[in-house]
Design goal:
By secondary structure, this protein is of the alpha/beta class. It has a single domain, classed as 3-Layer(aba) Sandwich (Rossmann fold), CATH 3.40.50.720. The protein contains 10 helices and 12 strands. The strands form 4 sheets. A 6-stranded parallel β-sheet has the order 2-1-3-4-5-10, with helices on both faces. A two-stranded parallel ribbon has the order 6-9. The termini are far apart.
Length: about 280
């Protein structure tokens, strides 16, 4: 399948390239373009892809809060351009979205059909991207929501270990809860999904959920740094630009119905450490 991955140099883009290139997908060498520029519509459609996986986005949540206009331009209007291009060349589209389209006030994990209600500019811009894509593509659209993605670059596990090394102790919030998600597991789930041609909205995260505090404790355990004290704090104690949804884990129900599931987050995190860290696991 002739495939373009926008944002291919990012952590998910690289994981997708690795997985799909091993499973008979022809990854097209589409030059990097600013998705905000409407000329990307013609440039992308000229490649005549059969599938476009749209990973390119402004994902810095606090950055989006500081500059909501740019967040909306990239995540909403940029997605509109990609969806328009897919319509022109009759390509299927995967739009990568987020758990932050929900307000985090639920008493259970969010299902695919729950009503979005974002509470910050990042979530609002990504929800608008979902709506833009759905407006252009009545068929051929997969919306894949995910959460707390890591697996390439300096993400949460690496930040925790670096902070532990620098400060010797940590303060981590206990009342922000979601699903840590390993890029390579997410990429595999997306690869399996597009082979079904079962269009719709899906929640793909590693199974189970935890607080940032418990996530950090597991990172330290796997990194052989259980000696580092971790002090529990609340979101109210942690100053940041964005307001995050406090309880926003995602439930994979529609993907599971197709036989697509992701392993527990603890197993995935251990696999990440085995692949990328030399520190001993206890």
């Amino acid at each position: 399948m002739r495939t373009i991955i926008t944002g291919i140099t990012g952590q998910l883009g690289q994981a997708l390239k690795h997985y799909l290139s091993q499973h008979n997908f022809d990854i097209l060498d589409f030059p990097r373009h600013d998705v905000q520029d409407h000329t990307v519509v013609q440039k992308l459609s000229d490649y005549y892809p059969e599938l476009v996986i749209h990973c390119a986005a402004m994902t810095n949540v606090d950055g989006c809060a500081k500059d909501p206009d740019t967040a909306f331009s990239v995540n909403a209007f940029g997605t509109q351009n990609i969806a328009h291009a897919c319509l022109r060349c009759n390509a299927e589209m995967v739009y990568i979205s987020t758990n932050e389209v929900f307000n985090g006030r639920s008493d259970r994990p969010y299902h695919e059909d729950d009503k979005p209600n974002p509470i910050n500019p990042y979530g609002s811009s990504k929800r608008s991207g979902e709506q833009m894509a759905a407006h252009y593509l009545k068929d051929g659209l997969y919306i894949v929501r995910t959460a707390w993605v890591y697996g390439g670059g300096h993400m949460f596990p690496e930040k925790i270990l670096a902070a532990a090394e620098k400060y010797g102790e940590l303060r981590v919030v206990t009342d922000e809860v979601s699903n840590p998600t390993y890029t390579f597991d997410l990429a595999e789930a997306i690869g399996k999904l597009v082979e079904t041609h079962a269009y719709g909205t899906y929640h793909f995260t590693n199974a189970g959920y935890c607080s940032r505090y418990d996530y950090a404790k597991e990172v330290l355990r796997l990194g052989g740094r259980e000696d580092v004290p971790v002090h529990p704090i609340t979101l109210a104690d942690y100053s940041r630009a964005s307001t995050v949804p406090p309880f926003a884990p995602l439930a994979n129900t529609k993907g599971a119905a197709l036989g697509i599931t992701l392993r527990p987050w603890q197993e995935a995190l251990a696999a990440h450490f085995e692949a990328t860290h030399s520190a001993p696991m206890s």
